[in-house]
Write a structure and sequence with these properties.
The complex is a heterodimer.
Chain A lengths: L3 H11 L4 E2 L2 H6 L14 E3 L4 H14 L3 E4 L16 E4 L6 E5 L4 E5 L4 H9 L3 E2 L12 H7 L6 H4 L6 E7 L5 E5 L11 H5 L8 E8 L1 E2 L3 E9 L2 H13 L6 E6 H10 L10 E9 L1 H17 L4 E4 L3 H19 L4 E4 L2 E2 L5 H15 L2 E7 L4 E8 L4 H20 L15 H7 L2 H14 L13
Parallel strand pairs in A: 2-4, 3-4
Antiparallel strand pairs in A: 1-2, 5-6, 6-10, 7-11, 8-9, 8-10, 12-14, 12-15, 13-14, 13-18, 16-19, 17-19, 18-19
Helix pairs in contact in A: 1-3, 8-12, 9-11, 12-13
Chain B lengths: L4 H10 L8 H4 L1 H6 L6 H12 L7 H8 L6 H5 L6 H16 L3 H11 L2 H14 L8 H4 L4 H4 L14 H4 L3 E2 L9 E5 L3 H5 L2 H13 L2 E4 L9 H5 L3 H14 L5 E4 L2 H8 L1 H4 L4 H13 E3 H8 L17 E4 L3 H4 L6 H9 L4 E2 L15 H4 L1 H18 L3 E4 L2 H13 L5 E4 H4 L2
Parallel strand pairs in B: 2-3, 2-4, 4-5, 6-7, 6-8, 8-9
Antiparallel strand pairs in B: 1-3
The chains are: A alpha+beta, B alpha/beta.
Chain lengths: 459, 422
């Protein structure tokens, strides 16, 4: 429990109206987007400036109170659950888009800006921020940076770290620092910026960011390829890329997902297909046309049973709606869904999909796969019910084995969600102890009293 | 352990939520407050805790589940199809069940609003004293809330000199003297009765012009929106029974108020306690039509047949979707079809046409400042259209839009779509 005096100090820093400690409020800040993790903080604060955050962290550092930073709380790794109580520091009230710089293709934003708000604003200037995590409707820029978020468009554009030029951050000891800068090139000493990106809130609090933007591509085209075997679909992914076409998205839906979508909102997807791949090409119209032709040619050659090119935006929207509905289809179908975030080298996608099927069979659980096949980042999911203890435990075992298989296939524990609490048990197992110690050393340097988001990653 | 009968009914909806947080983008309240207790996910989580016995119905819990417009924007966009409107209303019902209504609501719902004659008498009384104090919409639909909104600088339309009930004919035959193509019951609703009787008369006019016989049963009562959305299911059920009885002789029940049509249709969703009620309320739902869908979908009138009133010729109009039409009843295209077909009227779509105006029934009385902030976004949308008039089909929205247009010193006039038709 937090002392009364600390509460009073927090109220002095951010104002009484920005400190929340009602039992109901604490419950509402005890969770994130994960299923199984929750813990109540002792107090929730809503700072509005880096200066306020600095004061909060100085106080917490002096009193050795854990601080869990949090934006929209859409993350699915447990990263913003305050496992040790203490302070939840919420950035949602720091939500100003400070500058859009068309000349330099950059923007300056506060940490609490929601990605979709930014996307809508940038579109008016013909610009976009390429990372597109599927939580874009609620995720804040601070969280996106802290988790180094990805999304479907990463095949062509890369992940968050490639689009952050610099940040302003507050260190656990209260200093306000600027890491990186505003230029595209920057080799001034160690690259502390990129240590901070993907640090999952354990090194400090991002307060502001300088983003790298791109002009919105003038043309887009969507292709749906149908497969009788999900593993063949997996092969098509790298065949397309090795033949010199880089679409901005390559998404995969398996038979289970296709059928749930058709039950929910029939849109004419091939129900017998074992899988479909959705490709999107973007760029200048002539290039997009050529790339589309090339993709059709390659997927036909490598085993697609049917290929459809969306004739207009309406048809394309229909396919992408199906992809989005896939998410709903999975989560609406079972009381509890364990959805994973593993990434393998693209060539191993077919092997991983086969493995997932075997594992599901072995544990007698229903499973499905959808994901960003283009970068090898799959979200295999197992459907279960937390209230059915026996089934739930079996499902956990299946999911664990899926993760282990991905690692055996040369993959990584997480493509875009981070370690947080969800992947801790694997982290120490698969990470070289020397590397773990280096990471701990970095943490200790930034945060000597271990107040920033303690209990995460390796703990 | 507290009785949780009402919560148990909505448990399956609450369990749908997977805590993704997408609702935050669509929630007008969260967009202003940026606090987790404001958004569907937070409310849903607390209700689930209550179901587990880990959260009591504290006054703070009451504040939290009270602070929802029930605009259903989150529901329409929820990937997991969580029906948070049912969860919130169910939680309010449970709270009323366990803690009672409180003196003021008890008096308003059970002694005034649930008795048509008494309601009329009280509103007339209010009318007599209207000159004394700044009037508010609150005193019409939520008499006791009136006091809370005093001094907030709110603009409200004055009460009508003569209520609809005093001037309307019980039976209105088709104008052409021919046998009626259809006989429908007209549901007036409080706002049409006490504030906008001329719109109700206009609607009867439009319907009789198209060969429909319109009957206005005296036995009809308040639709119950404010009552059962506040969790008073007991009074809500009583009103449902009275209204179903009052309209038992008609194939259709038609109303010009988006909230009324939606509320009558949704008796089956919120109120049934027995299978028999479920069946009867569902049968009633099928009879209820909002005037927009009745004209276009049932009577199948070609929108081109509607003539624009002279005073609106050359004006630019934009449409505001009432939540109770666009999301509760999926009525979106019908009113637009009418407006677009009116020759001489220039129609412009506003950005965020489907976003709540901030009214939310008594929400705007309890949270007037917040309501104004939400309305500000609506006003921004209206401004970008350059429209002269904002058109809608819900008196509740009209009242709130009028207030906010005035508050923001905007030139637009607010109209019910029926007012535009010759």
């Amino acid at each position: 429990m937090i002392r009364e005096a600390v509460l009073t100090d927090l109220q002095k820093i951010v104002g009484k109206e920005n400190v929340l400690n009602t039992p109901e409020g604490l419950k509402a800040y005890s969770y994130d987007g994960t299923t199984s993790w929750q813990h109540e903080p002792d107090v929730v604060v809503f700072p509005k400036t880096a200066g306020e955050i600095s004061e909060i962290l100085k106080l917490a550092n002096k009193e050795k109170i854990p601080v869990t930073p949090r934006g929209g709380g859409t993350n699915v790794s447990g990263g913003s659950v305050p496992m040790l109580g203490g302070i939840v520091l919420v950035t949602t009230k720091m939500n100003n888009i400070l500058k859009i710089d068309k000349e330099n293709l950059s923007a300056t934003v506060e940490a609490g800006v929601v990605l979709q708000d930014l996307t809508l604003k940038l579109a008016k200037d013909g610009l976009f921020f390429p990372p597109d995590p599927q939580s874009f409707l609620g995720a804040t820029m601070g969280g996106i940076i802290a988790e180094n978020a990805g999304g479907p468009a990463c095949v062509k554009y890369g992940v968050t770290k490639q689009y952050i030029l610099g940040i302003e951050a507050v260190l656990p000891t209260g200093e306000i620092v600027n890491l990186g800068g505003r230029t595209l090139k920057n080799v001034v000493g160690y690259d502390l910026l990129h240590i901070f990106i993907s640090s999952e809130g354990t090194l400090g609090v991002v307060t502001k960011a300088e983003l790298k933007l791109r002009p919105l591509p003038p043309a887009k085209k969507t292709i749906m390829a149908v497969y009788a075997d999900v593993a063949v679909a997996g092969e098509s992914v790298y065949r397309v890329l090795e033949n010199g076409v880089i679409p901005d998205k390559i998404e995969l839906l398996d038979n289970w997902v296709i059928n749930r979508i058709e039950e929910m909102a029939p849109m004419g997807l091939p129900k017998d297909a074992d899988a479909v791949l959705l490709f999107e090409c973007d760029g200048i119209p002539e290039t997009v046309e050529k790339e589309t032709e090339k993709i059709v040619e390659i997927v036909k050659k490598y085993g697609a049973s049917d290929v459809r090119v969306a004739k207009d935006q309406a048809e394309a929207d229909k396919y992408w709606m199906a992809r989005k509905a896939g998410f709903a289809a999975v989560f609406g179908k079972a009381p509890t869904v364990l959805s994973e975030d593993v990434t393998v080298p693209r060539g191993n996608i077919p092997a991983l999909i086969k493995k997932i099927k075997e594992i599901a069979k072995k544990y007698n659980v229903e499973s499905c796969v959808l994901g960003h096949a283009g970068d090898g980042n799959l979200h295999p999911s197992v459907l279960t019910d937390m209230k059915n203890k026996e089934h739930y435990e079996r499902s956990i075992k299946a999911i664990d084995e899926i993760i282990e298989s991905a690692v055996e296939l040369g993959g990584v524990l997480s493509g875009e969600h981070g370690i947080g609490l969800e992947k801790q048990k694997f982290f120490n197992r698969v990470t070289n102890p020397v590397v773990v110690n280096l990471m701990k050393g970095v943490k200790n340097l930034f945060d000597p009293n271990n107040i920033m988001n303690p209990g995460k990653i390796w703990d | 352990m507290e009785d949780l009968k009402e919560l148990k009914k909505i448990e399956k909806y609450a369990d749908q939520c997977m805590k993704c947080g997408f609702c935050s983008f669509f929630c007008p309240v969260y967009q202003e407050e940026k606090v987790e207790t404001a958004v569907a996910r937070g409310k849903n989580y607390l209700v689930r805790q209550a179901l587990k016995g880990e959260q009591k119905f504290t006054p703070e819990m009451g504040n939290i589940i009270g602070k929802c417009l029930l605009c259903k924007r989150c529901v329409a966009n929820c990937p997991a199809k969580t029906q948070i409107d049912r969860v919130v209303v169910g939680a309010r019902a449970q709270m009323v069940k366990n803690k009672g209504l409180g003196f003021i609501k008890n008096f308003a719902f059970r002694k005034v609003m649930s008795n048509r004659k008494a309601f009329g008498r009280y509103v007339k009384m209010a009318k007599a004293f209207q000159w004394m104090m700044p009037t508010t919409e609150g005193k019409i639909r939520h008499l006791p809330d009136f006091l809370k909104a005093l001094g907030a600088g709110r603009n409200i339309p004055t009460l009508a000199d003569k209520f609809l009930r005093d001037v309307v004919q019980r039976v209105n035959k088709p104008k052409n003297g021919k046998a009626p193509v259809m006989r429908v019951g007209f549901f007036s609703g409080c706002a049409m009765d006490f504030i906008f009787p001329e719109i109700a008369l206009k609607m009867i006019d439009v319907l009789t012009n198209h060969g429909v016989e319109v009957v206005v049963p005296e036995e009809q009562n308040c639709c119950g929106a404010a009552i059962y959305f506040s969790g008073d299911f007991e009074t809500g059920r009583m009103l449902a029974e009275k209204n179903i009885e009052a309209f038992k002789d008609f194939d259709y029940v038609v109303t010009g108020c988006g909230t009324c049509s939606s509320t009558l249709k949704d008796y089956q969703k919120y109120l049934p306690d027995t299978e028999d009620q479920q069946k009867r309320y569902e049968a009633f739902e099928k009879k209820v039509k909002d005037s927009t869908e009745f004209l276009i979908d049932v009577l199948k009138i070609n929108p081109e047949e509607f003539k624009l009133k002279k005073e609106f010729v050359g004006k630019t109009a934009t449409w505001h979707d009432p939540c109770h039409l666009v999301r509760y009843q999926n009525i979106k295209e019908q009113p637009r079809a009418i407006l677009k077909a009116l020759k001489g009227l220039n129609y412009v779509e506003m950005p965020n046409a489907d976003m709540c105006c901030g009214m939310g029934g008594s929400f705007s009385v309890y949270h007037y400042d917040l309501s104004k902030k939400i309305a500000l976004k609506k006003m921004d949308g209206i401004k970008t259209t350059g429209a002269d008039i904002v058109v809608t089909a819900c008196p509740g929205c009209m009242i709130n839009l009028i207030d906010n247009v005035l508050q923001n010193k905007m030139p637009q006039k607010v109209h019910h779509y029926l007012e535009l038709i010759e």
